[in-house]
Write a structure and sequence with these properties.
Elements (H helix, E strand, L loop, with lengths): L1 E6 L8 E5 L5 E5 L11 E3 L6 E6 L1 E8 L3 H13 L5 E2 L4 E4 L2 H8 L4 E8 L11
Parallel strand pairs: 1-5
Antiparallel strand pairs: 2-3, 4-5, 6-8, 6-9, 7-8
Length: 129
């Protein structure tokens, strides 16, 4: 038997505490590891045949692209300089939807659109996953 636990990117960073499964069953997380929970993780429980599947919740995001990679790199620099979480792909950056960030992006040579999808930002360089 597997319970589903849908969490946004911020909630997946917290590996201890009470949660409600998607079917409203109370769960108490006490994970002995650092790092975040990832979409698709399967957690064992203290019940022999009961597991918990982590589902990444879809979030409101900004999808950033550029005609030239250097412009995308500049955007990543400016976002990182403001400690904004970013999910990085070869030709696209994703970040949480935010009016202030959209204003910043308007000053850069990038294109951006709104998107609703699962968000898995980069871990910090000093974090271990």
């Amino acid at each position: 038997n597997t319970l589903k636990l849908t969490l946004n990117s911020d909630q997946r960073k917290i590996v201890r505490g009470k949660r409600l499964s998607d079917c409203n069953q109370e769960l108490h997380l006490q994970l002995p590891r650092e790092g975040k929970l990832n979409d698709g993780d399967i957690l064992q429980t203290n019940h022999k045949n009961l597991f918990v599947e982590i589902i990444a919740k879809k979030e409101n995001l900004i999808k950033i692209s550029a005609s030239y990679k250097v412009e995308l790199i500049k955007a990543a620099y400016h976002l990182g300089n403001r400690h904004v979480e970013v999910e990085i792909y070869e030709d696209v950056l994703l970040t949480k939807s935010d009016y202030i960030i959209e204003e910043l992006l308007k000053n850069l040579d990038v294109d951006f659109t709104k998107s609703v999808r699962k968000f898995s930002p980069e871990s910090g360089a000093f974090n271990h996953d």
